[in-house]
Amino acid sequence: DVTLVCDDQTQFPAHKLVLSACSPLLADILLNHPHSHPHIYMSGVTQQVMQSIIQLMYLGKAIISQKSRSEFMEVAKELEIESIKHNGVVTVDAFNDKNI
Fold this sequence. Notes:
Helix content is 45%, strand content 19%. The chain is α/β, with parallel strands linked by helices. α1 (16-22) crosses α2. The longest helix has 13 residues, at 47-59. The radius of gyration is 13 Å and the shape is globular.
């Protein structure tokens, strides 16, 4: 019932309830801008990082490449994702880009 849109215009369908539970920032945006199916543009967020952020929100862990790790952590902190906000850490299964 919500769509997140990353820099290259790739759209990721999601659920308001999940996003709101994981991110106070997104909860605030959704609460203050009621719409039946909002689209939230995530400026500066790549498709790969957005996919990992959504994976973290839904599964509690994410798989990211080493080269995307700092961008991932930055976006997660900006979104105030609860696991990052409270611990300063997140369970991340990183893989080496050479194995792709």
